[in-house]
């Protein structure tokens, strides 16, 4: 994330709310655990923001700030991330980006790269 702290926290509000509305509520999730890298300067503020934004929802929310998020996520099921290395190593993952695009964005611009299979 780049920009001022204020911009980062504002963008996080939008992303967290969209994630909850698109996925957590639709799939009746009982518990959501957020893992944040503690070495990142805004992780403490982001933890408080997540807890504040989600305190009135019916599911349990846990936010952990830890030193090596990647190694933790690699051992879990139902991981939501865009990090390809973690996606390759974790037990299972959820494509939240697809859920958000399909449900929240009208007329998304999508490019089908399947034709590259014939070229390569």
The secondary structure category is alpha+beta
Cα distance spanning the termini: 34 Å
Tally of structural domains: 1
The count of DSSP E runs of length 2 or more, i.e. the number of strands, is: 2
Mean pLDDT: 82
What is the percent of helical residues?
40-55%
Largest sheet: 2 strands, parallel
Unreliable spans: 1-5
Give the radius of gyration.
16 Å
Count of individual helical segments: 6
Percentage beta strand: 5-15%
- What is the spatial order of strands in the main beta sheet? 1-2
Compressed to H and E, one letter per element, the order equals HEHEHHHH
Shape: globular
Walk me through the topology.
Elements: H1 5-24, E1 31-37, H2 43-53, E2 60-66, H3 69-73, H4 84-89, H5 96-104, H6 116-119
Parallel strand pairs: 1-2
InterPro entries: DUF5616
Protein name: DUF5616 domain-containing protein
Pfam families: DUF5616
Write a concise keyword list for the protein shown above.
120 residues; alpha+beta; two-stranded parallel ribbon; 2 strands; 46% helix
């Amino acid at each position: 994330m780049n920009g001022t702290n204020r911009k980062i926290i504002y963008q996080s509000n939008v992303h967290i709310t969209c994630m909850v509305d698109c996925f957590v509520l639709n799939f009746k999730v009982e518990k959501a655990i957020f893992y944040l890298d503690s070495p990142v300067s805004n992780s403490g503020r982001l933890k408080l923001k997540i807890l504040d934004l989600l305190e009135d929802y019916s599911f349990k929310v846990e936010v952990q700030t830890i030193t090596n998020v990647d190694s933790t996520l690699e051992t879990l099921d139902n991981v939501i991330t865009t990090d390809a290395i973690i996606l390759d190593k974790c037990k299972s993952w959820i494509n939240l980006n697809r859920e958000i695009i399909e449900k929240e964005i009208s007329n998304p611009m999508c490019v089908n790269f399947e034709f590259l299979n014939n070229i390569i």
